[in-house]
Amino acid sequence: xxxxxxxxxxxxxxGRPIAPALEARLSVAVGRPGxxxxxxxxxxxxxxxxxxxxxxxxxxxLTLQALAGLLRPLxxxxxxxGQTLYDSERxxxxxxxRRRVGYVPQHHxxxxxxxVAANVAFGLPRAERRRDSPRVxxxxxxxxxxxxxxxxxxxxxxGERQRVALARALVVQPRLxxxxxxxxxxxxxxxxxxxxxxxxxxxxxxxxxxxxTHDPDEALALGDRLVRFERGHTTLAGAxxxxxxxxxxxxxxxxxxxxxxxxxxxRAEIALSAATVEAPAELLEPGEGGQVRLxxxxxxxxx
Amino acid sequence: MTGSQTxxxxxxxxxxxxxxxxxxxxxxxxxxxxxxxxYPGRGLVxxxxxxPLVLPPSVVGFFLVVVFGRxxxxxxxxxxxxxxxxxxxxxxxVIASCVVALPILVKTAxxxxxxxxxxxxxxxxxxxxxxxxxxxxxxxxxxxxxxAAALVLAFARxxxxxxxTLMFAGNIPGRTNTMPLEIxxxxxxxxxxxALLYVSVLSAISGVVVLVAARLTPREVPA
Lengths: 303, 223
Hints:
The complex is a heterodimer of chains A (303) and B (223). By secondary structure, chain A is an alpha/beta fold. Chain A has helices at residues 60-68, 116-121, 134-142, 158-170, 188-205, 216-222, 240-243; strands spanning 22-30, 37-45, 49-53, 75-80, 83-87, 92-93, 101-104, 176-180, 209-213, 225-230, 233-238, 251-256, 261-262, 268-269, 272-278. In chain A, β8, α5 and β9 (209-213) form a beta-alpha-beta unit. Residues 1-14 of chain A have low confidence and may be disordered. Chain B is an all-alpha fold. In chain B, α1 runs antiparallel to α7 (131-159) and α7 (131-159) runs antiparallel to α10. Chain B is globular and about 65 Å long. The chains are: A alpha/beta (303), B mainly alpha (223). The interface between A and B is medium-sized, with 34 and 21 residues.
């Protein structure tokens, strides 16, 4: 963008191997000394999407903010596409506004005093900052927001808001995009769609991303790589599929050996003959006396 | 209306508007500082800003004389260096108005700035805004209603200033007789009709201020 930060190699150098999208080693602490919450994190991503996964309070968001430069770590280093944004030993600290690192939060992601197009144009340099600039229009089009260009943020659905936030982050062509549980307050179906849109858009623009979530489905659907956080530490790293178990359906099929018999509490029981059960192998290992017992649970849902 | 009748009205408006121009950047900067920064001595700054609200106006006026008067701490130096005499001038009335308007400005603008979601500022910074640009393009637009209400109230406080002005600027007809001073002088002289003129003008201004401030009461910032 406007200013170039320390150690910038000036874009992709043809002769060199491409630097990894992100390498970071961070010690972050917040709060007063003594009662401070501290996080130690080690992150690496060649390209694609890195998922920071773990329960709330594990330090995922804090790590994300440190990557963005929104808070200053105690020590460590952050390198994005080969450029050092922070290195405590070499005393390098690039301030947030010069990092070209995008940020999408869960709440309050849009400027309420600007309409959709103006929100998207917000980060452009003054000369290009127009609601009808070609880049703004192209991104609105790409994310299916063209009809909403004049809408105010408070008139949008949660999913629309986050798509606008994504467009606004991408319009300035960031080196890296940071997303802090951006879909957490959106319903299940909307989330699945947004995931898909996000993944496609990132791939199309070739922008690497770090995505914070505590939802395993989301982690599996989006991540090329996953880092697990627990109580202020990164504990595991690897491919999401190797660290998280994908949910699989369990299918029970057979011949009804009679009518269903009603039980208490709206439940019923049916006897099956020649029944088969299809499920992940480890669920079907017979226990004592060759008995197979599956305890299946339906998800809570509305009646 | 004769010139001597309109003079206090024009003078009061000029004094209050000048005071507002001077105190607005200082007050908004202080409100932002108190809303967004934690630093040693923050509580002390809070107390000093609030002081003019608690102190009797005559005490504020006395302090102003001690500081800015001809033989005051700063006043003496201003006179020696520039030949400036502040006491008993319209400038003195402006200074007095500034001092009493500051607390209400800071204390009304501060919660408005505190109410701006930090996420908005984080997003703004990530989009390349340096601190000053961030304030003018994100924080202030998000808090403008509350800040505008604070300015309106500060103006009302400035135009109604009496005690400290009397001590520091005096009540010199045709020079420092602002409306509040003129009301007192006319009433003492038994000229109730003259007093009533300024009472009406000040009441009207106050009525407008209350209405405008109510309309500006900050709304919830939507997500």
